[in-house]
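Retry 2 of 3 after timeout on previous attempt. Resubmitting C-alpha cells to design endpoint.
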C-alpha cells in the first residue's frame, strides 16, 4: 500500500482509473458528489475500487451535515449543521449531546449500507470573530469544552454504526481568515491563546483513530509552513501538546493554500509527519504525481493505519425508523442563525 488516499473522476470506475489503482495501490478512496448518483451505483463503484486494489480498503466521505454533505436527497436525508447541536446544547446539554450522537449514528447507518466506513467528521475547530466563514456553522460552538463534548458524542455515534471518525482540522482552523481551498491562511495569535482555545478543543479527542491536518500557518509555532507540511507543528503541537496518536492524514493536497507541484506537496507532507496524503479532485495527472511521491506505508505510519482500521467494528443494532423520529423530536425548532457557531 502507498501512503495516499485518492479520489475518482465520476460515478463509475474508468479503465484508466482501474489500471492506476492496481499499479499505485492507494491506501483508500474518498468520495464526492461527482461520484454519487444512486445507492446501487455507489455500491458498485465502491466494490469496483476494492476489487481493483485487492483488499477491503477504507472508503471515506465528508458527511458532516449542513453545508458539508456529499449524500443528500432524493436518496439520503439532510442532516443539520454542527451549530444546530450547539444551539440545542445551550438549551439543554444532555439533549445536545444525545442529538449529536444520534445524528451521527444515523449518518453511519446511511454510510454503512453503501460500504463507506470512514466519515471525515467531527470537526473540533473553534471559530473566533472575524474569521473566514469556511468553518462558520459547521462548528459546534465557540467554547473549547463544549466543542470537544459535542465532537466526542458525534464520533461515538459514528463508531457505534461501524464508521470511523476523522477528527479535523488539527490543530485548529477556527481562527483562519482565509478559505484554505483558495489561499493560505496565516494565524498570528500567540501560543498561549492557541493552547487555551484552539488546541484545547482537540485534547479530549486525542484518542480518536484518525485525524486530518489544517492547511493553516500558525506563526507562533512555525512562521512559514502550514500545519500539513510543518514538522514542528506535527511533532510539537499535534503529537505532543494535543497528544493525538492516531493516523494523521493531510487535508486535500490539491487545495489552493499549498504551493509547489503535487509531488513536492506530497513529499513535504510526509516529511512533516503526515502518515497518509489525501488527494481529492480525481484528476489523473495529479493522481499519478501524488502516487509517484507517496511512499510505501511502513513503520509507525503503517502501525497507526493498521490500528485505525482495526477500530472498525460491525454496527450495533439500530431501529432506524424509531431513531429518526427521536432525532427529529430532539432537533425540533432548533435553527441556528446562518454562519453562527
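Retry 2 succeeded. Sequence:
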Amino acid at each position: 500500500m502507498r501512503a495516499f488516499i485518492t479520489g475518482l473522476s465520476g460515478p463509475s470506475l474508468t479503465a484508466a482509473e482501474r489500471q492506476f489503482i492496481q499499479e499505485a495501490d492507494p491506501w483508500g478512496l474518498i468520495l464526492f458528489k461527482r461520484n454519487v448518483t444512486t445507492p446501487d451505483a455507489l455500491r458498485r463503484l465502491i466494490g469496483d475500487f476494492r476489487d481493483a486494489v485487492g483488499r477491503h480498503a477504507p472508503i471515506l466521505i465528508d458527511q458532516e451535515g449542513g453545508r458539508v454533505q456529499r449524500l443528500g436527497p432524493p436518496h439520503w436525508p439532510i442532516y443539520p449543521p454542527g451549530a444546530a447541536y450547539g444551539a440545542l446544547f445551550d438549551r439543554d446539554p444532555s439533549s445536545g449531546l444525545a442529538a449529536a450522537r444520534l445524528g451521527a449514528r444515523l449518518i453511519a447507518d446511511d454510510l454503512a449500507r453503501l460500504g463507506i466506513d470512514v466519515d471525515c467528521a467531527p470537526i473540533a475547530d473553534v471559530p473566533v470573530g472575524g474569521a473566514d466563514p469556511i468553518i462558520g456553522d459547521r462548528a459546534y460552538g465557540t467554547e473549547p469544552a463544549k466543542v470537544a463534548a459535542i465532537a466526542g458524542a458525534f464520533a461515538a455515534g459514528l463508531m457505534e454504526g461501524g464508521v470511523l471518525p476523522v477528527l479535523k482540522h488539527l490543530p485548529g482552523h477556527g481562527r483562519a481568515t482565509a478559505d484554505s481551498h483558495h489561499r493560505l491562511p496565516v494565524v498570528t495569535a500567540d501560543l498561549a491563546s492557541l493552547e487555551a482555545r484552539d488546541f484545547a478543543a482537540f485534547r479530549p479527542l486525542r484518542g480518536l483513530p484518525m485525524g486530518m491536518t489544517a492547511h493553516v500557518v500558525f506563526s507562533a509555532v512555525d512562521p512559514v509552513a502550514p500545519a500539513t507540511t510543518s514538522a514542528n507543528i506535527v511533532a510539537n503541537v499535534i503529537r505532543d501538546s494535543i497528544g493525538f496518536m492516531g493516523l494523521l492524514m493531510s487535508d486535500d493536497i490539491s487545495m489552493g493554500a499549498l504551493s509547489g507541484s503535487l509531488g513536492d506537496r506530497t513529499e513535504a507532507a510526509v516529511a512533516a509527519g503526515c502518515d497518509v496524503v489525501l488527494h481529492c479532485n480525481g484528476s489523473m495527472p495529479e493522481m499519478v504525481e501524488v502516487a509517484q511521491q507517496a511512499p510505501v506505508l511502513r513503520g509507525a505510519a503503517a502501525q497507526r493505519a493498521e490500528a485505525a482500521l482495526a477500530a472498525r467494528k460491525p454496527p450495533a443494532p439500530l431501529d432506524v425508523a424509531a431513531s429518526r423520529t427521536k432525532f427529529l423530536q430532539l432537533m425540533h425548532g432548533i435553527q441556528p442563525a446562518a454562519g453562527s457557531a
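Attempt log closed. DSSP finds eleven helices and twelve strands in the chain.
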